[in-house]
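We emphasize that the prediction below concerns an isolated chain of 532 residues; any contacts that depend on oligomerization or on bound cofactors are therefore not represented. The input was used exactly as deposited, without trimming of termini.
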Amino acid sequence: MTEIARGRGRTGDVELGAVPEVAALGNTLTDLFNGLGVTQAAYAARIHVDKSAVSRYLAGRRVPPQAFVDQLFTEISRHLGTSVQEHVKDAVRQQRLDALRVTNPDAYELDSLRAELDRSQRETYRTGLLIESLTDALEKKQRQVEDLTGDLTRQQIDWAAERRETAGRYVRLREEQEAGATARDQLLRQIEELRSQLAEALRQRDRAEEHGRQLRARVLSLEEELAARQGYDAPDLPALEEVQELLGELWRAGDHAAVVRELVTAAHARPLADVLALVDWLPAAAAGQLVADAARMRPVPDVLAVGAHPGVADSAKNQTALIEGLAARLSPAELARACGAWAALPEDGSRLADRALAAAVRATSSLDEARQALSPVAELYRGACTPRATGRALAVQFRKTSLLDTVLMALELPWPELITWLTEVDATPYGGRTEPRFLPGLLDLDPEARTAVVRALAAHTSIRSSVQFAQELYGEPGDERRAEGRVLLEVFLEAGEAAREGFEGRLRSQTHSTHLRNAVARWSRTLPVDRP
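Result of the prediction step, given as a token string:
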């Protein structure tokens, strides 16, 4: 884990304005504040911050939180009717970081990493735009080359037909051909240059994405270390009872914007115990907002503790807010790993772990990426929670790719419980006509793999899904590989009967196909009478 400098500016020095960096920041903030034309007391009431804290921030005796600086930018923009220029915002943010560096190295390192992560994400976005632009330009140049090539071909035909008629026309056509060839060569060189630029842009995007992943990992590591350490000072905050009283007054006054600001401040700055107490105290809608803000802004260990709190674990709405907030800041693999603590919770908590895994799956763009996210946690979750939401998310996300490939992935993890929910999503209602979902790809597997899939489906799918799969194996008249499917049907029936008592009887009673029912009955009659 990263070593964090433990030195701090002395509190007395800061309060007396003896730290130059803090004093310089206070002067800058005062210059900006004076443009509002209000008193410090009035401004403190407007943004619901203690007026003594506003005074210390503007006097350069205390480093304000970034939320205070951002709010000041917002108020100035609203007052002037135009946004504060980005270079001014960047300069003030840098001054704040310089002040934190000498007064609170812990907060300085964390805020610096977050700023660098924001820049990395913006660079990734800009690189994506450049790639789109270069790709469009490359396609345009290639179409021009194709058009010129066609013109050259037609000119060569015209030249061959007419060059015998007149020498003058021969010269003109020759010149046109040379000019066209020159233009084509120039376009080919431009295309080659565009390809080179596109390749470099792709490399820049990959580097930016990798840098972003590394920064996210460092931010998470630093947040966890800071959360575990003592002495990470919170800004001046009123007592919890005062916050509750203030929120009650704001609700009664109908000032919902001020309520949101107070909840954001509480989610970011108040002790974890206060946040959990507010979750229990607040109305459902406001509690969901507080949970979402905490998931986006607090260290990951705190977020996991919020998820384990009964007021969150027992509420589907709070669970949704928590998962969406956490998914916005973590990659799919990080989200899957971070939420492992929830798998050991009672039923509602384990459902939260399942929903977090489903969110990680929905954030992936390929089956390989989903496998990479799930593989490290499969053993942890297997048996600890029912993967209902995870299986359904996998089925919906990759149904167009291959449901069979997704089932194979569940077997590789190995996590056979997933198969129940993977196949349940696509189950055909009773009496409906089944569509081939497995058989074409299944028969292309090697014999050992196809047998493993068939046995897993027999052991873990619902009867309704088992009927659908059995019908697919049995096939329809005219199927080219009907015989191979019926061999596998016998394997399926044998595995199902071994795994679940009365399997073939329930399968036979619930199928709408007379042919399949008779086939299952014939198979059953071949079994020993005294079979266990």
